[in-house]
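Researcher: I've been going back and forth with a colleague about how Neutral amino acid transporter 9 might be arranged in three dimensions. Neither of us has a model we trust, so I'd like an independent prediction. The organism is Anseranas semipalmata, in case that matters for your notes. Sequence below.
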Amino acid sequence: RPFHVEPTNIVSVNDDMQRVTDEASAMNKRIHYYSRLTSPTDRALIAPDHVLPAPDEIYVYSPLGTAFRVDSCTDGYGKNSSIVTIFVIWNTMMGTSILSIPWGIKQAGFTSGIILILLMGILTLYCCYRVVKSRKMIPLTDTSNWEFPDVCKYYFGSFGQWSSLLFSMVSLVGAMVVYWVLMSNFLFNTGKFIYNYVHNINVTDIVPGTNGSNKVICPSAASDRPPQNRSTVFSSGNSTGFELFEEWWDKSQTVPFYLIAILLPLLNLKSPSFFAKFNVLGTISVVYLVLLVTVKAAHLGIHLEYNWFTENEFFVPEFRILFPQLTGILTLAFFIHNCVITLLQNNKNQENNVRDLSIAYLLVGLTYLYVGVIIFASFPSPPLSKECIEQNFLDNFPSDDIMSFIARIFLLFQMMTVYPLLGYLARVQLLRQVFGNAYPSVFHVFVLNIAIVGAGVAMARFYPNIGGIIRYSGATCGLAFVFVYPSLIYVISLHRAGQLTWPALIIHIFIILLGLANLIAQFLL
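Model: Here is an independent structure prediction for Neutral amino acid transporter 9. You can compare it with whatever you and your colleague have in mind.
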């Protein structure tokens, strides 16, 4: 029988851990979805009736990944097989950062880009393994509902609580800004394709590109050329109407503002859990992107030339000083440390957690490698330079490309369903910490949503560079959740147990320094 809690009742897991009854513990499992959306360091949960999900449901989120539901048993351990667990982790991690991987490889150089993807995958996997083990090293009777930010609070007190909130907000707001920039881009290209098709208008972009049915363009080469949408009408159609359309349908000047009318009302919903039902779109989008990359590469062929340290007109060196830009992207691309404990807790065979996590990371790394390497290698150089690879590789295909049009439609709809969930997560984390209530008033929620939407619109208007936004936010939140906290907690736990050795101390100090260097380098290069 469901255990009912009035909205004013509070279940404090940290303070009453020893005397929580079995019935209240079962109820906590039912509201685990809500607890995952609160600040994980604050276990004083206020659970209104309207946010209570159906029994045995847990929702986990990754900033640039997808929302995914896993089923939980009442004893705290899940019923997912290893295959399902691996897929859940892969699906949760895979996100829009995949669009910037080819650009990151170009910035780092082809050979160094491949090496960095492998090394960052191994490093983030090791830190993720430390996150999973961190909770088991706490000498308390019940930490089954804890996530990694709870562990940070246990070891570092209020500093760990507030700093984890800060870095979590950086990852969430950064992801929402990236989403707004990408949604503006996809909506613009989709609208342009539909308008031209309906009005039978053939448009040639004033952008360098290849000829033929599989056209590839270089938008950055024409970034200083008017008009703003850089297109010219070459066939029948109302040229005046087309010019008016281009004036009111501009990628940076108008389209980002149109999204406000659609998404701002959705952000103000008290419980947007309805949108989590569309998480399958994330998987479909990634699979379709892999298919798109494969088909394009089959038509374009491979275009590689190895220049180890020198740069020529069409190719970049194999090693470049700009490689930290790729490591910043990869920090967020491999980021799942904030919810990995919950994902693995629902694994039927707990003894396989390390193996399953390693396989999931391997699959994620291979997916990134495949998309990044294939796009870079097949980019037609000559006639175009590898420097033309855009921060969103779909921008290298014109708006009238059918496969790219379908990809943009998939991604646009997927992002419009994930965006309200990320906004809800950011709202509940911040407002609960500051006001003690996830929904203090309509005014508080509206002001916060206006600030988040304003940041997205401003970036889409003045700095629509998703690669830059991803690497800055990734290096910032990764400094805490990937490099510093897992290493410090492991060193502290070893010290308390009297098992700390000099090699372990030196290795984990080195990992912390790598994270710090990764963040500093983003602002220097």
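Researcher: What would you highlight for our discussion?
Model: I'd start with this: The chain has a mean pLDDT of 81. After that, consider the following. The longest strand covers residues 57-61.
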